[in-house]
Design brief:
750 residues, alpha+beta, nine-stranded mixed β-sheet, seven-stranded mixed β-sheet, 13% strand, elongated
Length: 750
């Protein structure tokens, strides 16, 4: 206790500089704890969403109510509707969030769906009935849910099953798939938690040289080595505790605001994002514990060799054992890349799921601990070759004290390394969440849209073309009648929206054939098929002998054995009940979401099938993108903060050296060049290593993921551009840190 009181008295007695340093340490800890709390509460937000979704899931059983679920896209969002019908009087199961099930003709909707219905009256056909209530938060996964309970007569609900109650153990539609959630946690840990530890360590070691000299003075006047360490650690712990409390309070305020704003694809209630007891304990205890450990370590030299600290004795070169971590890490990563180049399929397998994450962590740790010895060696070589005085001064200073350079750039290096991994995760998720074809089709029943809507849908932003197809007549009486489809399209459309098509003759009805697939009915030349007309009659088409060899993209309207009919030869007045309007666009997620939103705005009551993809997967990809963007923003804030704090701290610590150089005649331009070069050297080395190692790590992840993309060549220029931007910003930010003003108190007289 006496050492703690001594540390506090020394802190407040050291003048304004000491109090400012203490305040910066506290604010830095607050920022770090707020970011830590945000990352740790993301799984809690997702779990709360899934728990409420599971509690509202209907389950079959015996009761006086039957139900049927529908999950359809409304734009790019899933619209969930539960139709219920009473079979007899009596009590009924009640889901969370409402007081009673709606009767026939009544509707209970979520607040977001209510706003949608008010803004777009045409969507009322999706929820037929009179709105009599709103679902409370406990009955919704999130505040943006489009959810409705619709009462209906039993005769109007074919295919219904008895309702036993509500609530299952696990949601059928989690916000993020459990396997993907593990990948998300690992990625967030790399891009946020690793830079966060570095940042907190930087904050705990502010004014390291000044504090070391002060501690050495205490040691020389008789304070024991153990108490000397305690004095330093106690000061760091107090700042960390104050910062942790401030960080928790700040996060609570940010959570209240963000819960009302939400993220693309993810909205939550404020209570979901409030940290749990374990999270608060980890923040309030983990940050001070780290500060205590850093304080003990940073005071070791002053406690054991105070004279060398006071007289600025020769520093020991950085230890090289940290570089050894790069050997197994890069060895595994490069090994996967080489085997992939040799043509080996390395996807799947439990070994890869352990080796790749382990190699990523080892490589990241190697970049951190190996940067100091690499920078010191490179600075020595450059100093021996340098003919410029500013460069020589900068290199010698970097050679003597590479550890301070390490604190400056580590956060930014880890950020670039994590950005590479993030790109790989997004590419892999994009591959498994959408069609592999470059084109996306959207099937809409013609009976769901009016002629005016059909024309408007063709002009939706992103839509390239619209194709109409019809199925042949089926009596629907159980008889076995052969079936085929006709597609009203031109040869130009066929060629543009398939992998390849040969043999198409303009102005003729022809049959599509694909040697890779076998049709269920396999129409033969000369067979006649009937197509229903609007007036109840039938139009007949005969299968021609002429065939087109076609290879469509995955599931497509241009399927094998269909008849390609030029629009000019299409029988007039075909029945809309058997027709489908197919829109075609590019398959990138942004275009798909834009087209779905456009369809939802023009034809809100139409049932839309995004061919080959599931709307829940598209929504999940949006959530994951949002969370990774949040992680990158947090990582950027942490990395930039660590850089700014470290550069400012170095400038303050080296004012004595700058003053001495100024007295010796060094010009202001020389001093600024020295400062810039000192910052840029470790930054160039670290960012270069991070780009190479990160790109290889990303490639190994994609190789073991089993997707079609193994090498992210498109993302590499983006990383290089970001690295150049970081170096330019660092150089500009370093210039104002040098002041040529000579203050006598900065000149040491040891």
């Amino acid at each position: 206790m006496n050492t703690f009181v001594l540390g506090m008295r020394l802190l407040w007695g050291s003048g304004r500089r000491g109090r400012v340093r203490f305040l910066l340490m506290a604010l830095g800890s607050a920022l770090g704890v707020a970011c830590l709390a945000a990352v740790l509460t993301i799984p809690s937000i997702l779990s709360a969403h899934d728990a409420r979704a599971a509690a509202r899931e209907p389950r079959p059983g015996a009761s006086n109510v039957v139900y049927r679920e529908f999950n359809d896209p409304y734009g790019s969002q899933p619209l969930h509707r539960v139709f219920v019908a009473r079979t007899r009087t009596g009590p009924t199961p009640v889901p969370p969030g409402i007081d009673r099930l709606p009767s026939a003709g009544e509707v209970v909707v979520s607040p977001r769906l209510g706003e949608t219905l008010a803004a777009n009256p045409r969507a009322a056909g999706l929820v037929p009935g009179r709105v009599v209530g709103t679902i409370a938060p406990e009955g919704l996964g999130g505040s943006d849910d489009l959810y409705a309970y619709i009462g209906i007569e039993r005769a109007q609900l074919p295919g219904a099953e008895p309702l036993g109650g509500f609530g299952i153990g696990k949601s059928w539609r989690p916000v993020v798939d459990p396997s993907t959630l593990n990948t998300l946690r690992f990625t967030l840990g790399c891009i946020v938690l690793l830079p966060l530890v570095t940042f907190l360590s930087v904050c705990a070691r502010l004014s390291g040289e000044s504090r070391a000299r002060r501690l050495a003075a205490l040691r020389l006047v008789g304070l024991s080595a153990k108490d000397t360490r305690r004095v330093n650690a106690g000061e760091s712990v107090v700042a960390a505790v104050l910062g942790a409390l401030l960080g928790i309070v700040s996060y609570l305020g940010i959570n209240e605001f963000m819960a009302r704003v939400g993220l693309p694809g993810l909205h939550w209630y404020p209570a979901d994002g409030r940290p749990e007891g374990t999270t608060i304990a980890l923040c309030l205890l983990g940050c001070p514990a780290l500060a205590w450990a850093v304080g003990q370590f940073s005071a070791r030299q002053a406690a054991l060799s105070p004279i060398s600290v006071r007289r600025a004795g020769e520093r020991k070169p950085p230890k090289k054992f940290g570089m050894l971590l790069l050997v197994p890490g890069l060895g595994i990563i490069v090994g996967y890349c080489v085997l992939s180049i040799m043509g080996r399929d390395l996807s799947g397998g439990s070994a890869s799921s352990l080796l790749v994450p382990g190699a990523v962590l080892l490589t990241g740790a190697g970049l951190v601990f190996g940067l100091a010895p690499i920078t010191a060696w490179l600075a020595r070589q450059l100093a021996n070759m340098a003919k410029s005085m500013p460069v020589a001064l900068a290199m010698r200073r970097t050679e003597v004290d590479p550890g301070s350079s390490l604190r400056v750039v580590t956060g930014l290096v880890l950020l670039v390394f994590g950005a590479s991994l993030t790109q790989g995760v997004l590419i892999e998720l994009d591959q498994v969440s959408r069609r592999t074809a470059p084109l996306q089709e959207y099937a809409i029943r013609l009976s769901d849209v009016s002629p005016a809507q059909r024309n408007a849908l063709q002009d939706v932003a992103g839509v390239r073309t619209a194709i109409v197809s019809y199925g042949s007549w089926d009596p629907l009486d159980g008889t076995d009648v052969k079936h085929t489809d006709l597609v009203a399209a031109t040869c130009e459309q066929l060629a543009a929206y398939t992998q390849h098509a040969t043999g198409c003759l303009r102005g003729q009805i022809m049959q599509l054939r694909d040697d890779r697939t076998v049709s269920e009915w396999d129409p033969k030349a000369g067979e006649t098929y009937l197509f229903a007309l609007k007036n109840g009659r039938k139009a007949s088409l005969t299968v021609p002998r002429e065939q087109i060899s076609v290879r469509p993209w995955d599931i497509s309207v241009f399927k094998a054995s269909a008849l390609l009919v030029p629009p000019s030869l299409l029988p007039p007045d075909l029945a809309d009940a058997d027709g489908t309007l197919t829109l075609v666009s590019r398959a990138d997620p942004g275009t798909v979401r834009a087209v779905l939103d456009g369809i939802g705005g023009l034809a809100p009551t139409a049932s839309v099938e995004p061919v080959g993809i599931v709307i829940d997967s598209l929504a999940q990809l949006t959530v994951i993108r949002s969370l990774l963007v949040v992680g990158m923003v947090l990582g950027l804030v942490i990395g930039v903060s660590a850089f700014v704090v470290s550069v400012a701290d170095r400038a303050m610590e080296r004012r004595g050296q700058v003053a001495a150089l100024a007295l010796l005649g060094a010009r202001a331009g020389t001093l600024r060049v020295v400062q810039v070069v000192q910052v840029l050297l470790p930054l160039v080395v670290g960012l270069g290593a991070a780009i190479v190692a990160g790109w290889l790590a990303e490639s190994s992840y994609l190789i073991t993921g089993g997707g079609a993309v193994h090498w992210d060549w498109e993302g590499l220029p983006l990383l290089l551009a970001c690295a150049l931007g970081v170096m330019l910003a660092a150089a500009v930010a370093s210039v104002p840190m040098v002041r040529r003003h000579v203050d006598p108190e900065h000149i040491r007289r040891d």
